[in-house]
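Quick entry between incubations.
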Amino acid sequence: MAAKSVLILGAGFAGLNAARVLGKDSAVEVTVLDRRNYHLFQPLLYQVAMAGLSPAEIASPIRSLLSKQKNTRVLLGTAEEISLSEKKVKGPFGELAYDYLLVATGAQHSYFGHEEWEDYAPGLKTLEQATEIRRRVLMAYELAERETDPEKQKAFLTFVVIGGGPTGVELAGALGEISRHTFRKDFRRIDPRRTRVVLIEAGARILAGFSAESSAHALRDLEKLGVGVWTSTRVTKVNAEGVAMGEEFLKAATVIWAAGVQPSSLNAQLAAPADKQGRVKVQPDLSLPGHPEVFVAGDQVLYEQDGKPLPGLAPVAMQQGRLAAHNILRRIRGEETQIFRYVDRGQMATIGRSRAVAEVGRLRFYGFLAWLAWLFVHIYYLIGFKNRLFVIVQWVWAYMAYGRGARLIVHKAWKLREDREK
Amino acid sequence: MAAKSVLILGAGFAGLNAARVLGKDSAVEVTVLDRRNYHLFQPLLYQVAMAGLSPAEIASPIRSLLSKQKNTRVLLGTAEEISLSEKKVKGPFGELAYDYLLVATGAQHSYFGHEEWEDYAPGLKTLEQATEIRRRVLMAYELAERETDPEKQKAFLTFVVIGGGPTGVELAGALGEISRHTFRKDFRRIDPRRTRVVLIEAGARILAGFSAESSAHALRDLEKLGVGVWTSTRVTKVNAEGVAMGEEFLKAATVIWAAGVQPSSLNAQLAAPADKQGRVKVQPDLSLPGHPEVFVAGDQVLYEQDGKPLPGLAPVAMQQGRLAAHNILRRIRGEETQIFRYVDRGQMATIGRSRAVAEVGRLRFYGFLAWLAWLFVHIYYLIGFKNRLFVIVQWVWAYMAYGRGARLIVHKAWKLREDREK
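Done. Structure below.
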């Protein structure tokens, strides 16, 4: 029997884990298509934005991650059109035909219809965005240092994070720590400890996906780092001056968006029922309704378990990717597919240098112990031995020295004639 | 006596070394102005372009390098105008008055009047340029892998380096090694070993600053890595298709410029005699003719020693920066300034993974021993203990695994709506 061709769109947690399952089976020939040449370890992306880690430390080339799988080839490119009837995917690379398709192109951040806010409040989903946020944060301190007008200086030293989920909490905690510790002795005119960090959350509490107890702990930890947490506060406008919340207005040079995500735009081409956000409702075996040869996994999927939709977390995507791959192999062998069931091994968020909240089943950890658990789990799952080693060294270093290893303001332009201060 | 204000323009090797000398003396108040927030270890910049090191590993924030010097403040900004009569420097930061000025803004690459070549052949002087070259090199392999037309594939797999000085030799050697070793197993359709790497040099031999014997050694080492070295060859045009050399034309998707440098454009404002390239002729004590309170150091200076101009190398800049600082202190104390004399401790260039040429006085080293010496010297001079540690780990890793740790294609645009394949 000729090998069946399996096309995987996206090499995030779902796609990469699926590729690894399929790479062991000679019944398939696998093609992995991604817009980037690297797999990104998203849970640590905020560390790049906060100058703690370098991009290369949380990203590994997909090609080298899969180079040992003889049946797998990797292509760089953007899937633009999925033709379910022709069983083809089209894009600038030409056409790719498939027998089985796994769509795992994830999610991106969403401004709920206010795309014009993006200029003033970048989101945090890609390495480029992380580098842009890092540039803005570092630049704000530099401009504050050379500013003589105290009003303007205050705006440069005000940092607003919108959205109190894990990413928002981690960003605000890191900003608090940077101002209190890392930058303490580096400036002459300004005192970085006078920095204002404000975390804005529309809901009644931060970390809504965690227990009320963990949420309260995180709040206390943030306040210890000098972060103002404004819950039940809805942002009505973001512009170059700052953030409006109804009648109120907070002047801030740096605003970061961590408030919402939307699924990949490819979902619209899957002709399947979706929820309000656009997440696709799949069959219990993760296949697309009416298309037993197409599977969908990861953040772009709406999957309800015990009456609740699963959150958009890396472990969910990894488990879905693996099950989808096994179901493809089962279908090829003529076996029955299996139903997806998420095994929850817990969730955690870190706050600053040595605090975190962690929940594993009914257990809850806080403070330094939770931070150690967080560190261990993240480094363990970080792909590639070398990256793990580097991140450990970086962290041990940063822990001892209160340092930030990657404090570079990198410009966008590379040409001589464009290389002006911006 | 009130402290005298010393303004240093540029925190490269000259400026940083001067700042460190002045930081020990309470007779001065020092301001260091730089366009970037980091000091860049230029000798290893080609490693960033070749995906061997991450930007943060060869760059350290100027602020943290100088944070222990109580008499020193660091400002981010571009010096746009030097008023020698008013003793002021102007720019977007406002005005900075000085009692003593050290101009150490270095050099950038030059296209000898063909600035339009820059689009097709980036130079290598900044981190942004290094990242752009890395993007082009990695992208060329990705596009070759998905290309079906063999002619186009060949152009994607042709890499041209223009200029056979140390940077050109190091780039060409690294390209040869990547194609032979690093990428060997990562692609399916293309064989990276079929990559063509061509190093073009207008002069009769590469590494013209070295002895003929070292030059011949470097040539043999490059040829072992499959690099074609075309000496006595003058480039007459560079465009999107490739490189023209008179009647000849070489099709290449990736061209890198390592052929020439020009001094900082601030030189034009110093009202001093200069050579054809624009380098300023200074007094033997490095002060500007007619302005005993202004000193110039580093790549933008023409300084003749034993009848020959000193080369634009890091050790020259470091020694000049230190002497200029001491001469400023001498002048403040009313002492006589000293004459600059370069102490040559040798020069070296590396070729690929484990070969190099090194010259120390009359001694010459080649091969692995020279490479070890090169490694030791570069890591020793790399600023910041943490960076040194990281680079060692990276290199030990790369040496063992034939790896390239930083193989990321990073886009310029960070916004969602601009995030298309480019």
